[in-house]
Write a structure and sequence with these properties.
heterodimer; A: alpha/beta; six-stranded mixed β-sheet; four-stranded antiparallel β-sheet; B: alpha/beta; five-stranded antiparallel β-sheet; about 30% helix
């Protein structure tokens, strides 16, 4: 087996205490360890407050980490700083839940997709538009969308733009935070198919966070179940979904009654 | 007699640009003491139908129907709406439904005072009883709490208790679990089911989530572009969908295809609400569409329990 692309060990994230005399809060992420091999998709499920988002933010270097290590492609990712961090941020792409909130309402789609490429200075100015059109095409939208703005798009189209932006810097790792939960079922199916295509086309390694175990079952190879900041179950997705060891995981399976559960 | 009888409902907003068809031809029948699911994707008209039942259509909307009856009463004719008396609503976001600056006790009391004229101590006892009936563990503490001190699931229970306080027999639940975590949502659905059994309530469950429908509804209707395309008992409907749209919707669920295989998608977009539709609304996206589908309104089929609108006799056989 090749070296994992993302290797997280004993990661602890704790937010600052609320007041000078307040007790320090419980860690938002408590000693979480996992790894993702190149080309694989890791699913993370858990409820609000389970630490999923804090974990993602820590991997994105958006919140300080109390202890633990994160290795990205073998390098100590948490100790990269300054200009080097700036340059390497392009290695991780992000797609958020609500495209209307994550896409600027003031910029055209061309500007939205070009922005990360400009920040990384990887693409010549004269080629930005062509490159934006190319990525947008790979995400299933024709080039005439480039002049539009986010509010003119449907939810599914806007999420495709968010994918295009995330892929603009040729990231090694794609982080997806509930990318389909704001979408209708038929649109969700389109986005999940797109994700499968992109995965093959770019050889993407992905971390997919969701509360929907059915979606996770469809997309992910391995799975983490989080509760109150800790990983309570981890392993191959199919194994966990068909044979969960924790009652909590079973509850997460959704609304179906016992008899309907496989 | 069913509690709700709606047929041929259309809701239209007249604008300078033309008529916006929010609901085009909706049929709905709900028997007493059942939970009926109204399934559909964004823009199919499910929420505005709930609003119409509550008498809360925004200004400018025009409602027309062959019948639009609640318990035999023609709702179109009623000068006074039944909202807050016989019909109550549970919304998607309980945090927005509750007043953030008043305690739960005060908000419960507001409802009871406007409905009964009971003396204060009896109202208080009734509020406690209703909160307990929704499964809140410590009603006394909840009464003294403000909404922000409660979790989402507890807030939704308070909203349900308020709905019960009106004495309403019909609840419209508009995506009541969407803002909640799966496990909490499951508890709220179980509560609604219990209230239906214990108090004989009738519930209209507006949702886009097939799992919600499968887990708690007795019967359901599928809406597409403001039309009721299919109705039937939930188990039968989900196991043997007759209408191509219902079939496509179920095939698009992520557990419909094995991992690694593509999901079936529905090509194209829903018709814009400004568009006049000839023929079947789903025809442009329907894999089984025939020439007749684009020119003639779909045929209406009924069996003892099911009904659907399609030119094909029974499309899944």
């Amino acid at each position: 087996m090749s070296e994992p692309l993302l290797n997280v060990k004993d990661l602890v994230v704790r937010y600052p205490r609320r007041g000078l005399f307040a007790a320090p809060p419980a860690p938002a992420v408590n000693a979480v360890s996992f790894s993702v091999n190149p080309g694989q998709t890791l699913g993370i499920v858990g409820e609000s407050g389970s630490g999923k988002s804090s974990l993602l933010r820590a991997i994105l270097r958006l919140v300080p980490v109390e202890s633990g290590t994160v290795q990205l492609a073998g390098n100590d990712w948490l100790n990269v700083s300054g200009a080097e961090l700036q340059a390497q941020r392009g290695d991780i792409g992000v797609v958020a839940q609500n495209p209307y909130l994550s896409l600027s309402p003031r910029l055209t789609i061309a500007e939205i997709i070009a922005e990360p490429m400009q920040a990384q200075a990887t693409v010549k100015r004269s080629q930005l538009r062509d490159r934006a059109a190319e990525i947008l095409g790979q995400c299933g939208l024709p080039a005439d969308f480039l002049t539009r703005k986010a509010r003119e798009l449907s939810g599914g189209q806007a999420q495709r733009v968010a994918f295009a932006r995330a892929l603009a810097t040729n990231p090694k790792l794609l982080i997806l935070d509930e990318p389909t939960s704001a979408l209708d079922v038929s649109v969700q199916a389109q986005i999940l198919n797109l994700l499968a295509d992109l995965r093959v086309k770019f050889g993407l390694t992905m971390v997919f966070v969701t509360h929907n175990l059915k979606v996770v079952r469809h997309v992910s190879d391995t799975l983490l179940v989080m509760r109150q900041g800790a990983v309570i179950e981890a392993g191959l997705t199919e194994q966990i979904v068909t044979n969960p060891t924790q009652d909590y995981t079973r509850e997460l399976m959704g609304y179906r009654t016992e008899s309907q559960m496989i | 007699m069913p509690l709700i009888e709606i047929s041929g409902l259309s809701i239209t907003l007249v604008t300078p640009r033309g008529n916006v068809h929010a609901v085009r031809s909706l049929d709905l029948e709900i028997r007493r003491g059942t939970i009926h699911g109204l399934i559909g994707e964004s823009g199919c008209g499910k929420t505005i139908t709930g609003m119409a039942l509550l008498g809360l259509l925004p200004q400018g909307f025009r409602l027309a129907a062959k019948s639009f009856r609640f318990d035999g009463l023609e709702l179109c004719d009623l000068a006074v709406s039944l909202r807050g008396r016989r019909i109550a609503m549970i919304s998607q976001d309980p945090a927005a439904a509750l007043n953030p600056v008043l305690s739960v006790g005060r908000q419960m009391d507001d409802v009871l005072r406007s409905h009964g004229g009971l003396p204060r101590h009896q109202r208080r006892a009734q509020a406690l009883e209703l909160l307990a009936a929704t499964g809140l563990p410590d009603p006394l503490r909840v009464m003294q709490s403000f909404p922000h001190q409660l979790s989402g699931g507890m807030q939704q229970r308070v909203v349900i208790a308020q709905a019960l306080a009106t004495g309403a027999e019909f609840l419209i639940a508009d995506e009541p679990t969407t803002a909640l975590d799966v496990t909490v949502g499951a508890q709220v659905l179980a509560l609604l089911q219990r209230l239906v059994t214990e108090r004989g309530l009738t519930v209209l469950m507006i949702t886009h989530d097939m799992d919600v429908v499968a887990s708690c509804c007795d019967t359901a209707s599928v809406l597409y572009a403001g039309h009721t395309v299919e109705t039937g008992p939930v188990k039968d409907l989900l196991a043997r969908p007759h209408h191509p749209y219902t079939q496509a919707l179920l095939a698009a669920l992520p557990d419909a295809a094995p991992k690694g295989q593509r999901l079936t998608t529905i090509e194209g977009q829903i018709p814009p609400p400004l568009e006049e539709i000839t023929g079947c609304a789903f025809a442009p996206r329907c894999p089984k569409a025939m020439t007749v589908c684009r020119t003639e309104s779909p045929l209406h089929h009924t069996t003892s329990s099911r009904s659907w609108s399609c030119h094909l006799e029974q499309t899944n056989v």
